Amino acid sequence: MLLIHCPYCEEDRSELEFRWAGEAHIARPENMAGITDEEFAEFFFLRNNEKGLTYERWRHIHGCGRFFNAARDTVTDKFLMTYKAGLPKQPVPGVSATEKAVETCEQTEGDAR
Amino acid sequence: MAELATRTLPLAGAHGGSAGVRLTPAAPAERLSLRARAEDVAALSQSLGLDLPTKPKTSASASGRTALWLGPDEWLVIAEGAGSSSSDLKAACASSGVLHSAVDVSHRNTAILVEGPGSAAAINAGCPQDLSLKSFPVGACTRTIFGKVEIVLLRTGEESFRVEVWRSFSDYAFGLLAEGARDAVL
């Protein structure tokens, strides 16, 4: 079982108390009515789905009920750090956020391998 | 036709437990879901007659009222022994004069008292919390999960807990606690 540190409860709690709430730090366009359909789709539907370090929103739904942000490694599933909602994207010590280790299905499993 | 409407608790008549754990449905109580901003906590504390806790996982008790910290701006206030539909707590909050949200949830919740040397083990049958006295001392409280239902857990003594659960889930919670109580003495 994963233990997740809730920045509001200031404690490691079981993953059973938490819910995932999508990618973090997605700014809602200020002129929602003015943007094109493509720009809206980019904001609303398209996510980076990065391999490695990702920033996500989580909610301590069966605890304090708060949303917070977490930096998580999608390869190891490890939570690298968590911080309160509203804070800017926090750098994770020892991990570069610009890491580009893009492996596509074609490269690893398809015929092109 | 009946002259009198009697109130039946959702867990009325339920009994369970084992050699090491006693399970009892708690008496009716008045409950308030209270939400307020940090700057209004002092005024609300004064009108409720207790200090609303501001540290995670803590509770405060005074003159039959208990306030449980659920979140940074959320408390569950329980007034024991207030079985009638009196609204003392809401009135007390209203007299503070500060902006807040107070919702009476007396009938939404019911409570199960878990007592005895195996009480922590019985709760841990479905709850991932660390219930050692070091990390969950007397007076500690939290909203957490018990099996498939959400509960609010309050440690009232070294070997006694109060499990607050929504009334429609209370049969499930009581049943799972009874299972846990049986396992706790093995």
TrEMBL record, chain A:
<protein>
    <submittedName>
        <fullName>Sarcosine oxidase subunit delta</fullName>
    </submittedName>
</protein>
<dbReference type="Pfam" id="PF04267">
    <property type="entry name" value="SoxD"/>
</dbReference>
<feature type="region of interest" description="Disordered">
    <location>
        <begin position="92"/>
        <end position="113"/>
    </location>
</feature>
<dbReference type="InterPro" id="IPR038561">
    <property type="entry name" value="SoxD_sf"/>
</dbReference>
<dbReference type="InterPro" id="IPR006279">
    <property type="entry name" value="SoxD"/>
</dbReference>
TrEMBL record, chain B:
<dbReference type="InterPro" id="IPR027266">
    <property type="entry name" value="TrmE/GcvT-like"/>
</dbReference>
<dbReference type="InterPro" id="IPR006280">
    <property type="entry name" value="SoxG_het"/>
</dbReference>
<protein>
    <submittedName>
        <fullName>Sarcosine oxidase subunit gamma family protein</fullName>
    </submittedName>
</protein>
<dbReference type="InterPro" id="IPR007375">
    <property type="entry name" value="SoxG"/>
</dbReference>
<dbReference type="Pfam" id="PF04268">
    <property type="entry name" value="SoxG"/>
</dbReference>
